[in-house]
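Posting for a labmate who doesn't have an account.
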Amino acid sequence: MNKEILIQADAEETAVAVLEDGRLMEIYLERVTKAHLVGNIYKGRVANVLPGMQAAFVDIGLEKNAFLFVDDTTGLEALEGEMPGRSRRRISDVVQEGQEILVQVVKEPQGSKGARVTTQITLPGRYLVLMPTVNYIGISRRIGSEEERERLKTLARAVKPRRMGLIVRTAAAGAGLEELREDSRALSRVWKRIRELARRSKAPRLLHHDVELSLRILRDLYTEDVDRLLVNSRDTYDTVVGILAGRSPELRRRVVLREGADLFALYGVQNQIEQALKRKVWLKCGGYLVIDQMEALTAIDVNTGKFVGRHNLADTILTTNLEAAVEVARQLRLRNIGGIIVVDFIDMENPAHQEQVIKVLQRELARDKTKTQILGFTRLGLLEMTRKKDQQELGSVLQQDCPYCHGTGKVLSEETVALQARKKILQLAGESRARALLVEANPSVASLLIGSGGAHLRLLERRAGKQLIIKGAENLHLEEVNLRELFDLDEINNAAPVKAGQILKVTIEGAHTTNNGDGIARVDGFVLDIPGGASYLGQEVTVEVTRVYRTFARARLLNDA
């Protein structure tokens, strides 16, 4: 497998793409206008203690107070070799309102929720993660060799600061004592500076900011399994090779500068990002996934789509599900989906087939640095799994909720809007002393209010007891309807969007329902009846308005000759 990392550094944004065999697997974005918060350490002040939730809100100087759960407050009592489990303490026994505490952001703010913080501070280095508040030694689960794990644990004990903890990272595989010792000392110096700054500062105060994106990628992702690291910025390139020069000369040789190049365009990354924002994801076999991200969980549905198979139904289903398992793992990484995930694979009657799907999913997720747990199939045949949620999902970074549908993905139909508009018209007509009412709506809604030949409009006018002028406006959203009282006679008479003698360029949309030779065009939803226009269906023509009526106008073709 060929693995490459692209660092695209621009003035407004730094973007990093992780490619495996040319396919986008992970994307990281950091914008000038929105700071990265995960990893930051603050001196905060407890704003509220909520015993009913076993949590507290902490003021760390951001727009919204951070959330501290009681299980994220354990620390100094942990013994070496044992990570702290779930706390049996109450939040009111741990913190009090007004108390100043050191916390670290573990989850970005999302929507109406503030950042999630912990008192269990971690400082990541190249080979080690320092945990100043717990006395613990751990080895990355990605290091599979028991012999190497024992060797690294022995080295970690030798370099571990007193009464602090260390986690040995995957990148430490094969590293020696001096490399680990230097990493440990550097992290200890950082922690000492943080403690000193905290002692002199009043809350709320930022004490430590995690390094910028390109350096985090260098620290966390750029390991021996990466074939090339491509950078488009000279400054970023110089920083990267400078850091790697002393400690990783082999990795330094794999760094390539493409100064000023649009790496995302060269490698087709932008198109893959756009595909990752869509609800439907096609598989090579012809099947597809439907991904629905909700507040509580993410549901992924697998469908055979265009794939009909070659042998029998069971093989067709298994082939689709196996390919879907590979793509599900990719989409979780690419979209950075976290929390509870439910996958509705196509029903498999053979338990052995279910095991095959789980094994493929486990194999693909083994390359995912974010912790995942597959819980298996439920009695309903749904596969349950969880993925740690810390960073923001790709959709929440690149998109915002639609201001019209408010994130539901649906708007009211034209019929529903027209019915609501009729009710509003009748209500205003009963209260108003105006001679007429002007109704502005989206053209598709305006045409329903007018009806064929103005039938709906005439009926509505009789019920309202007033003259009604319906105007279509292309700039209005489908659900938007504006009502206005008209008292002036001239304004009423000139309310139509066209006037006799006016010359217009219009597109013939269809043929007249009764006069087949006539063509129909619209100006802001207002109908133009054009004799002889049916021959120009779909074409743009020039016409002159000859006569204007209440609900439509007649026009003659000028380019008919």
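Reply:
Got it, the structure tokens are right above this. The chain has a mean pLDDT of 87.
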